[in-house]
């Protein structure tokens, strides 16, 4: 038992039948926690219907409470090679989905190594959506990572003089791209057997068309890792291997005589190597930022940044060596404007080379110079939302689309409800806002796409300085439009 | 003689189906070292001249690599259920060098049936923070060989592949990383029907010994005392006697110069702190035995 000041009463151990009791508890407000296997169960991850996290404000006298402790979900299985033999010492990852930036992302939640019989297991998972992926460990090869053992040919005979196309094992996952992941609830166990897939090494090769000193990196567009780094060769060429098919960001950063030059490109890797990528090292784009306001503005009152479309890359406005505000963008591409302001300021408009971009996107080209006019105002709007069907123990989370569309979200504002049912977002520029609320639930991270729940959005057209009050319905996942 | 001639003829015929051998050839069989029988469908990888190829041996355990560049080749063989070398490795790797004028080489790759010790540990309230260690026992004594990471809630463990030999299993509490893990008695495994010394597990070729182990949950005791000096910061640690293994780090109160370890299981320990600065050695130690009471007045003496 822990009181609201954080002081703990000495823990007690449950009897074999699960009973426990605390004696002589002083009056106060307490949270009761339970642990098993040495692991404390936190209040916000408990399943519905459990009374863990019970609070009582008065001296309780004799008080009885049941504390059902659910078993954590588990996944186990066997990894085999493509001919059915168990695969030993394979890295197995449990990728868990979470919702961010208007889409489902997945990232490594747990990792283990298959045993000599190809077996693996995860027993300490949280409810949620999972994909299990297996990847051979190149450093386990007798010759080390540089001499990875290729996948076998289904033949006892091989010819170094005219070998069949050499195949290597790739990251193989239980869920193919676009398929629904595995949903696991409390106490649920699943068996996921994996077969390693092989194919030609998925390389990306090309050259820089100017200069010769640069580092090259290939980073997965998904947030489940998958990165490779190298340097360009003296002839300007490069070659990198990707762990699996997918969308990658190839970026090149010059050094030495090429310092300050950059190049980037999105590369989609299918089942075959990507060759002939040509990139030119160029200076970054520079966007000079001019801020207009009715009175003087403290620099820390405004945060202005460009967020890459569908990625976490951001470029923030900062003072340059001459003391002027500018945004320096190393990588050309499409960006969303994202702003946050402090009292009493809000954005009234943002123009890029004269065109309004506040609720839209901007295309940035390498080495380009642009001018961004930012006008601030003290006539700010606000939206107060009340979630109609709220569970006070669930604290619904509210998402508000500040720019872009449900199918192509740009700046997405996220906020927890303050008291389980209300939110207030202030300092808003005028414009159209779409708002959704759904309960924090380990089993439902969010919709695959906001477009699927576009029909369930609350739409607010906010005029300059307007204060809007709206009622929000919880999103019903069963009504997602696929 | 007739059979041998036929075999040579067959070999020559097979060779003529492939491009003219500009380089070397290696062929052979993967066999079970215990029985001499071939092992079907073993994986054999060959590395030579900066390239690598992998094949699956046929149902007679046979494999062949042709046109090998250079004089040196490394073959690696593996098969589920088998181990290499003395039984401790999953893959067998062997290097071969072709002599001058040697165009072809025949080899035999021997794998041994895999041996394993596996099982399940059971605790009265879960398996938190338990660890199982495997010791190899020899006439010279016992040597710690491997240990599990913190067991998960299934309590399942498996040590494989292992060489044939004699082993002891020890259960223990992992040094505490979380607030309230169960503590287990550090003890060697004994089968339920046995009394006396620990059970030696005699592991035979190809044998998987499966055990069910009960973890003895025990209570821990407090170990506390005062430091002879009052430094700004003191790192007081508890080492398991006879090892350099840090079991716990003390809570330290600068104001009262006291240190305290909680939930320490019975056993022999060294309490140690090193307050040395520059060349002045100020290391203090105390050897303690935790039995069935709290130790509240541990005095540290200058280390000799």
Description:
The complex is a heterodimer of chains A (482) and B (304). Chain A is mainly beta and 482 residues long. Chain A has no helices and 40 strands. In chain A, strands 27-28-24-33-30-31 form a 6-stranded mixed sheet, with no helix packed on it. In chain A, strands 6, 7, 9, 12 and 13 form a 5-stranded antiparallel sheet that branches. In chain A, strands 5, 8, 14 and 15 form a 4-stranded mixed sheet that branches. In chain A, a hairpin with a 2-residue loop joins strand 30 and strand 31 (355-356). Mean pLDDT of chain A is 83; it is low at 38-57. With 304 residues, chain B is mostly beta strands. Chain B contains 1 helix and 27 strands. The interface between A and B is large, with 44 and 55 residues.
Search tags:
heterodimer, A: 482 residues, mainly beta, Immunoglobulin-like, 5 domains, B: Immunoglobulin-like, five-stranded antiparallel β-sheet, 1 helix, 27 strands, disordered N terminus
Distance between the termini of chain A: 46 Å
Listing every helix as H and every strand as E from the N terminus to the C terminus, the arrangement of chain B reads HEEEEEEEEEEEEEEEEEEEEEEEEEEE
Number of strands of chain A: 40
Low-confidence parts of chain B:
1-21
Topology of this structure?
The complex is a heterodimer of chains A (482) and B (304).
Chain A: E1 2-3, E2 30-31, E3 35-36, E4 39-40, E5 74-80, E6 91-100, E7 103-113, E8 119-122, E9 128-135, E10 157-159, E11 168-169, E12 172-173, E13 182-184, E14 189-191, E15 194-195, E16 198-199, E17 203-208, E18 214-220, E19 227-231, E20 237-241, E21 246-254, E22 262-269, E23 274-279, E24 285-292, E25 302-308, E26 314-316, E27 318-319, E28 325-329, E29 333-341, E30 346-352, E31 355-356, E32 361-364, E33 369-377, E34 381-387, E35 397-401, E36 412-416, E37 422-428, E38 431-438, E39 458-462, E40 467-472
Parallel strand pairs in A: 5-14, 5-15, 17-23, 24-33, 34-40
Antiparallel strand pairs in A: 1-2, 3-4, 5-8, 6-7, 6-9, 9-12, 9-13, 11-16, 17-20, 18-19, 18-21, 21-22, 24-28, 25-26, 25-29, 27-28, 29-32, 30-31, 30-33, 34-37, 35-36, 35-38, 38-39
Chain B: H1 2-16, E1 24-32, E2 43-48, E3 51-56, E4 62-68, E5 72-78, E6 82-83, E7 92-97, E8 104-113, E9 115-122, E10 130-138, E11 141-147, E12 156-162, E13 165-173, E14 183-184, E15 187-188, E16 201-203, E17 208-214, E18 217-218, E19 221-226, E20 236-240, E21 246-249, E22 251-253, E23 258-264, E24 267-274, E25 283-290, E26 295-299, E27 301-302
Parallel strand pairs in B: 1-8, 9-17, 19-26
Antiparallel strand pairs in B: 1-4, 2-3, 2-5, 5-7, 6-8, 9-12, 10-11, 10-13, 13-15, 13-16, 14-18, 19-23, 20-21, 20-24, 22-23, 24-25, 25-27
């Amino acid at each position: 038992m822990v009181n609201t000041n954080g002081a703990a009463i000495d823990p007690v151990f449950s009897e074999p039948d699960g009973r426990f009791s605390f004696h002589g508890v002083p009056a106060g407000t307490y949270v009761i926690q339970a642990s098993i296997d040495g692991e404390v169960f936190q209040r916000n991850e408990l399943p519905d219907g459990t009374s863990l996290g019970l609070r009582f404000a008065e001296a309780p006298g004799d008080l009885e409470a049941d504390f059902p402790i659910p078993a954590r979900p588990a996944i186990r299985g066997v990894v085999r090679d493509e001919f059915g033999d168990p695969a030993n010492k394979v890295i197995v990852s449990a990728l868990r989905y979470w919702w961010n930036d208007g889409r489902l992302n997945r990232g490594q939640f747990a990792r283990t190594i298959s045993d000599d019989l190809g077996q693996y297991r995860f027993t300490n998972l949280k409810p949620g959506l999972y994909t299990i992926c297996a990847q051979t460990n190149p450093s386990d090869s007798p010759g080390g990572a540089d001499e990875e053992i290729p996948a076998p040919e289904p033949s006892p005979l091989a010819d170094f003089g005219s070998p069949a196309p050499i195949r290597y094992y790739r990251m193989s996952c239980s869920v193919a791209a676009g398929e629904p992941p595995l949903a696991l609830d409390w106490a649920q166990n699943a068996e996921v057997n994996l077969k390693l897939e092989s194919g030609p090494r998925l390389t990306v090769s090309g050259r820089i068309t100017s200069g010769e000193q640069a580092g090259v990196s290939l980073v997965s567009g998904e947030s489940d890792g998958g990165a490779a780094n190298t340097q360009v060769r003296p002839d300007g060429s490069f070659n990198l291997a990707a762990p699996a098919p997918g969308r990658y960001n190839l970026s090149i950063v010059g050094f030495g005589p090429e310092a300050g030059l950059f190049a980037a490109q999105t590369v989609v890797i299918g089942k075959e190597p990507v060759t002939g990528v040509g990139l030119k090292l160029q200076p970054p784009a520079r966007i000079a930022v001019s801020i207009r306001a009715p009175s003087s503005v403290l620099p820390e009152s405004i945060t202005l940044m460009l967020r890459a479309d569908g990625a976490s890359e951001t470029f923030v406005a900062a003072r340059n060596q001459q003391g002027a505000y500018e945004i320096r963008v190393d990588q050309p591409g499409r960006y969303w404007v994202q702003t946050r302001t402090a009292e009493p300021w809000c954005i009234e408009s943002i123009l890029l080379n004269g065109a309004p971009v506040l609720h839209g996107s901007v295309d940035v080209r390498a080495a380009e110079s642009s001018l961004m006019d930012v006008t601030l105002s003290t006539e700010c709007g606000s939206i107060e939302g009340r979630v109609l069907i709220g569970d006070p123990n669930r604290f619904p989370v509210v998402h508000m689309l500040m720019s872009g569309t449900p199918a192509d979200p740009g700046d997405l504002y996220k906020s927890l409800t303050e008291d389980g049912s209300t939110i207030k977002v202030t300092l808003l520029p005028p414009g159209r806002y779409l708002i959704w609320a759904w309960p924090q639930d380990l089993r439902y991270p969010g919709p695959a796409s906001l477009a699927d729940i576009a029909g369930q959005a609350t739409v607010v057209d906010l005029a300059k300085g307007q204060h809007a009050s709206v009622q929000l319905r919880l999103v019903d996942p069963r009504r997602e439009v696929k | 003689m007739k059979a041998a001639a036929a075999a040579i003829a067959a070999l020559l015929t097979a060779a003529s189906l492939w491009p003219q051998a500009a380089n070397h050839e290696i062929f052979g069989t993967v066999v079970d070292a215990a029985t001499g029988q071939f092992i079907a469908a073993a994986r054999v990888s060959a590395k030579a001249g900066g390239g690598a190829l992998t094949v699956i041996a046929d149902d007679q355990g046979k494999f062949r690599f042709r046109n090998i560049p250079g004089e040196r080749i490394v073959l690696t063989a593996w098969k589920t259920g088998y181990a290499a070398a003395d039984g401790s490795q999953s893959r067998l790797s062997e290097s071969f060098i072709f002599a001058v004028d040697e165009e072809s080489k025949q080899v035999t790759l021997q794998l041994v049936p895999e041996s394993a010790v596996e099982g399940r540990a059971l605790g009265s309230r879960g398996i938190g923070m338990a660890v199982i260690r495997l010791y190899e026992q020899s006439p010279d004594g016992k040597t710690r060989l491997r240990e599990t990471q913190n067991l998960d809630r299934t309590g399942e463990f498996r040590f494989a592949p292992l060489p044939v030999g004699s082993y002891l299993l020890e259960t223990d509490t992992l040094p505490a990383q979380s607030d309230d893990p169960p503590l287990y008695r550090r003890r060697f495994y004994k089968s339920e029907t046995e009394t006396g010394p620990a059970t030696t597990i005699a592991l035979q070729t190809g044998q998987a010994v499966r055990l069910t182990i009960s973890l003895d949950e025990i209570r821990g005791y407090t170990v506390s005392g005062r430091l002879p000096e009052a430094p700004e910061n003191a790192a007081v640690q508890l080492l398991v006697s006879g090892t350099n293994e840090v079991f716990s780090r003390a809570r330290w109160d600068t104001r009262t110069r006291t240190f305290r370890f909680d939930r320490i299981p019975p056993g022999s320990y060294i309490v140690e702190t090193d307050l040395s600065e520059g060349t002045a050695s100020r290391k203090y130690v105390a050897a303690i035995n935790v039995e069935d009471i709290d130790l509240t007045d541990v005095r540290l003496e200058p280390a000799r």
